[in-house]
């Protein structure tokens, strides 16, 4: 299973490295979202700095949608999906591989966005351990849930419009928990940030398990 | 062919639901206004029962989805019941949010507040709206049933996580309605009895709607399957024999 996962993740990341969709389209999109937040909220009164944790994670969520769409779009052309099904790879391995590739792209995107909120919103990234742990758990959770819903909507004519409706309510707890934890890490509030990080870890564990169990039957006919 | 009206059992259930609802409404309107909330307190006769009925319907959807996914019990009937449960659940959930807003405006001063219970109810509704949207997408019945069943279970798995996260986030809502049953609470006895009647009536109504809706779903699916055959026959009839 792990070898299959590494194969699929390697394949997806090679495609992204060659096509440069993540770096040329998704990352600039995320930065544009940050700039739009700047227009929407008055930048002169420190609103942006106070809201930077939440805005960061909203931008991550929107970019995650694009990354997941992309992850399944590469399987829809040239019979790639059939190739994957006929490859004899373990479905759980395919799920873990695709989720790992999405997670790796999201992690890079979060680095870009973190630089973005520091430069554009004057945010201070203080508690590095909490910020990193939160990001790790949230990224795994987003990638796992995104991959489950990605395959659920795969092969449908309306997948571009259906995926956000399916995925966003499900990952709402990730936005909530990651935002609260980052606010603590950025010194914006004095909550117990690690409790939120634990909730994110539970979310990630639940969706990795669901994906490993359900991916096979969903992949069969997508 | 399945009939939407069903047998005498369904008619009896419908009659009981109608009787229960009419009694709840009549008694609810006659409840005395309270000091703090005035006439709006009467909404207790239907608002908590509506929320309860939506949980029942979503629970039916989840159980029916399990029924479909387990190979030994797999049958299109489970898929139809799951579809009906989700649809009725969304209906009751919407009514819960609407009656809650009508009560919240005079009592809290706002139509909506970001309190834990409201937020998680809204998210629950959004999860099942996504489920219904997935069902609407045309696909062959088995694929649709499988995807919908997995989607329902994944949504249900999310419910406790949503609940905890939102609960930690903030809490302002009234205590649980059933906690009002303890004698030391200041809720008047007539309110409690009308609310309990409301729970029974709403559960009956919810069950009746699910039974009826799943029958309609079964007919729709039968029609879907027949349409293709009929179209094929029509094309064949149009063909001119080669002489």
Molecular structure report:
The complex is a heterodimer of chains A (222) and B (243). Chain A has helices at 2-19, 21-40, 47-76, 80-86, 91-121, 128-153, 159-170, 172-185, 193-220. Chain A is an all-alpha fold and 222 residues long. Chain B is elongated, with a radius of gyration of 22 Å. Chain B has helices at residues 8-29, 47-69, 76-108, 116-136, 141-169, 189-238. Chain B has six helices and no strands. At the A-B interface, helix 6, helix 7, helix 8 and helix 9 of A face helix 4 and helix 5 of B.
Report the order of strands and helices of chain A: HHHHHHHHH
Say how many strands of chain B there are. Answer: 0
Weakly predicted, low-confidence segments of chain A: none
Structural class of chain B: mainly alpha
Number of strands of chain A: 0
- Radius of gyration of chain B, in Å, reads 22 Å
| Strand-pairing-aware structural class of chain A | mainly alpha
| Number of DSSP helical runs of chain B | 6
Order of helical and strand elements of chain B: HHHHHH
Share of residues in helices of chain A? over 70%
In round numbers, the mean pLDDT of chain A is 87
Give the distance, in angstroms, between the N- and C-terminal Cα atoms of chain A: 21 Å
Terminal CA distance of chain B:
41 Å
Percent strand of chain B equals: under 5%
- Unreliable stretches of chain B (pLDDT < 50, length at least 5) are none
Q: Approximately how much helix is present in the residues of chain B?
A: over 70%
- Provide a count of the helices of chain A: 9
Largest interface: A-B, 29 and 25 residues
Comma- or semicolon-separated keywords:
heterodimer, A: mainly alpha, 9 helices, globular, B: 243 residues
Short characterization:
The complex is a heterodimer of chains A (222) and B (243). By secondary structure, chain A is an all-alpha fold. Chain A is 84% helix and 0% strand.
Which helices and strands, and how do they pair?
The complex is a heterodimer of chains A (222) and B (243).
Chain A (H helix, E strand, L loop, with lengths): L1 H18 L1 H20 L6 H30 L3 H7 L4 H31 L6 H26 L5 H12 L1 H14 L7 H28 L2
Helix pairs in contact in A: 1-5, 2-3, 2-5, 3-5, 3-6, 3-8, 5-6, 5-9, 6-7, 6-8, 6-9, 8-9
Chain B lengths: L7 H22 L17 H23 L6 H33 L7 H21 L4 H29 L19 H50 L5
């Amino acid at each position: 299973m792990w070898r299959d996962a590494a194969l699929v993740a390697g394949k997806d990341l090679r495609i992204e490295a060659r096509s440069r969709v993540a770096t040329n389209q998704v990352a600039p999109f995320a930065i544009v979202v940050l700039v739009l937040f700047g227009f929407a909220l008055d930048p002169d009164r420190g609103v942006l700095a106070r809201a930077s944790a939440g805005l960061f994670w909203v931008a991550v969520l929107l970019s995650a949608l694009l990354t997941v769409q992309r992850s399944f779009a590469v399987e829809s052309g040239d019979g790639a999906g059939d190739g994957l099904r006929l490859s004899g790879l373990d479905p759980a391995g395919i799920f873990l591989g695709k989720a790992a590739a999405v997670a790796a792209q999201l992690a890079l995107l979060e680095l870009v966005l973190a630089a973005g909120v520091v430069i554009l919103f004057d945010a201070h990234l203080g508690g590095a351990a909490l910020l990193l742990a939160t990001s790790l758990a949230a990224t795994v959770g987003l990638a796992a849930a995104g991959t489950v819903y990605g395959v659920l909507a795969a092969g449908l004519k309306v997948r571009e419009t259906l995926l956000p409706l399916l995925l966003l309510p499900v990952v709402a707890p990730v936005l909530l928990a990651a935002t609260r934890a980052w606010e603590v890490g950025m010194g914006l509030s004095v909550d117990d940030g690690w409790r939120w990080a634990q909730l994110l870890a539970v979310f990630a564990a639940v969706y990795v398990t669901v994906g490993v169990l359900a991916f096979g039957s969903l992949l069969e006919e997508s | 062919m399945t009939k939407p009206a069903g047998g005498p059992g369904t008619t009896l259930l419908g009659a009981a639901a109608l009787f229960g609802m009419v009694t709840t409404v009549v008694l609810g309107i006659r409840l005395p206004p309270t000091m703090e909330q005035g006439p709006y307190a009467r909404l207790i006769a239907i608002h908590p029962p509506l929320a309860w009925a939506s949980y029942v319907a979503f629970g039916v959807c989840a159980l029916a989805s399990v029924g479909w996914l387990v190979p030994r019990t797999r049958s299109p009937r489970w898929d139809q019941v799951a579809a009906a449960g989700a649809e009725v659940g969304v209906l009751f959930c919407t009514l819960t949010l609407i009656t809650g807003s009508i009560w919240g405006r005079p009592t809290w001063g706002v139509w909506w507040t970001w309190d834990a219970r409201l937020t998680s109810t809204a998210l629950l509704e959004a999860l099942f709206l996504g489920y219904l949207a997935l069902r609407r997408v045309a696909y062959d019945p088995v694929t649709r049933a499988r995807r919908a069943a997995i989607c329902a279970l994944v949504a249900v798995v999310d419910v406790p996580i949503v609940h905890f996260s939102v609960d930690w986030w903030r809490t302002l809502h009234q205590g649980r309605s059933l906690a009002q049953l303890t004698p030391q609470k200041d809720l008047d006895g007539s309110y409690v009895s009308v609310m309990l009647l409301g729970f029974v009536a709403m559960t009956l109504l919810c069950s009746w709607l699910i039974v009826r809706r799943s029958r309609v779903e079964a007919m729709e699916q039968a029609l879907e399957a027949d349409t293709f055959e009929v179209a094929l026959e029509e094309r064949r009839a149009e063909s001119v024999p080669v002489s």
